[in-house]
């Protein structure tokens, strides 16, 4: 019997060391363009800092690295831990509420117009303008505690994307599968649990990928007025007031790394949870074929 047309006879089995090595090699090749892009950006930054922008406060990458060493890991852990906690709280609250309301759109169609209008309004709110209002309503946090204002802004930053991604995902369910559930006596809830949720997973995880960096950005924005004594926001303000550009760049780069790590985490979740989507959760809202 001949091998299937789409399988090479000499291809290593998935569970063998050769197969594992091939997967690792493919992963490294996939990461190479991104790594080269980062190195290119650093090179351009370095050249600009010592030539065109030599007379400005633009630091070199080496200067930022030296400032990072001088400040010490403890400085970054003390400040970033507060910001990450605020972002995680807002991420959980905002996405949890978004998934709940997206489910209601399918379970109670009469609520769709209201829920989608709320989602659009949350997206259109100018976060910078409402931050002082939220701070007045919520008040300052206890010393050393996360800011409630930052948590709310983080939640608002993720709400719209997840509502839209979840609703589109739920609606992408195969009509034939929904009919099968109906034939066997299932209602909207059974359709949601057995069919729509599976179909929506790629879209939901794709929305969560985008929401992870957005939550961190919302938390940092909330810290500027949120009354916290520690965090990425206050640290950036202090660095700016003292004209310490190396520290400011170091904090900004650490924030970017944290945002990228959050995005990468959900990209990994997408590969594990939705293998039928090929790990491209952000680009599809469909279920398994």
From TrEMBL:
Keywords: Cell membrane, Membrane, Transmembrane, Transmembrane helix, Transport
Domain ABC transmembrane type-1: from-to ranges: 76-270
Topological category with respect to the lipid bilayer: Multi-pass membrane protein
Transmembrane segments: 32-54, 90-111, 118-138, 150-170, 197-221, 248-270
Locations listed in the record: Cell membrane
Cellular component terms (Gene Ontology): plasma membrane
Cross-referenced InterPro entries: MetI-like, MetI-like_sf
Superkingdom field: Bacteria
Chief subcellular location: membrane
UniProt-listed Pfam families: BPD_transp_1
BP terms from Gene Ontology: transmembrane transport
PANTHER family from the UniProt entry: ABC TRANSPORTER PERMEASE PROTEIN HI_0355-RELATED, ALKANE SULFONATE ABC TRANSPORTER-RELATED, MEMBRANE SUBUNIT
Record-stated family: Belongs to the binding-protein-dependent transport system permease family.
Protein name according to UniProt: ABC-type nitrate/sulfonate/bicarbonate transport system permease component
